[in-house]
Write a structure and sequence with these properties.
- The chain is an alpha/beta fold and 320 residues long.
- It contains ten helices and twelve strands.
- The strands form two sheets. Strands 2-1-3-4-5-11 form a six-stranded parallel beta sheet, with helices on both faces.
- The chain is elongated.
Amino acid sequence: MKIKAIIAFLAFILVISSGCGKTDEPVIEERIVFGFSQLGDESEWRTSSSNDIKRAAEEAGIQLIFDNAQQNQFNQIKAIRSFILNGVDVIAFSPIVEGGWDNILMEAKAAGIPVILVDRNIKTEEEGLYTAFIGSDFFWEGVQAGKWMVERFGYRQGVVRVAEISGTVNSSPAIGRHEGLMEVFRDNPKFVLAFSISGDFMRSKGKECMEEILKAAPDIDILYAHNDDMAIGAIEVMEEAGILPGHDIAIVSVDAQRSGLEALKEKKINCIVECSPYIGDALMELVFKIVNGEPFPAVTYIEERVFTDRDDVDSLPVRP
């Protein structure tokens, strides 16, 4: 009986020892591989967006494959196809224009890779070609710009003439920001869009556009620029022409990046509707939820604000 008891005791110790050995072994978890195609680096906003996504991925421990498409849709499609061939866990991209994505997204769907739209939206012929959207409500931004114009200029007698420097043609921010403005104008017919031209979200083109505006519609009351970079380019042209920006011509911009906020403090810009590029953390959270099979929102809008030249400068956000 004693021998049997000793054998049983030794067997118990062996089981306990082997169990402890297993818990001491390191658990190796595979990193999420995330492919992201940025449309380019055309503006201060876009650079901030790229940097924030890179930071957030590193802090979250996600392996990021980052591609800069240099404002070329073909480059974006090529990058997305490369992500598919490399078998990444999730694909995301900021589409340069709304149309032309169906074929490449069908390839991603066939490969079973979820796709997130970042910052900009698209139009597709088939349902279910992308998994989620995260970014700004561009129509809301246009409405806020129009509301400020009505609040500041609604007392004036006669027509209020507005010139618009829009973003990239057929891009969702350019479409949304224009349509939001026109929605407000429909209810306020004294406000007239006297001239509209695309500046492609670039500061250099903002300058070129402002030169065209001064030739075609020199008597405008308000300039509406779809981003801060184009507004800053327009300000440079105004100042060279002896026009006081923010006084002789009121300026409404979208973004609230560092250069725009500085111009707002100097009262060269009168109103800025925020469009935040700092969505990296929310994007990584969305990636984790999708990969882990957790519930996630199909659409995530980033909370944004409106800043004016009458705000306390100390209350304005500080941008890197």
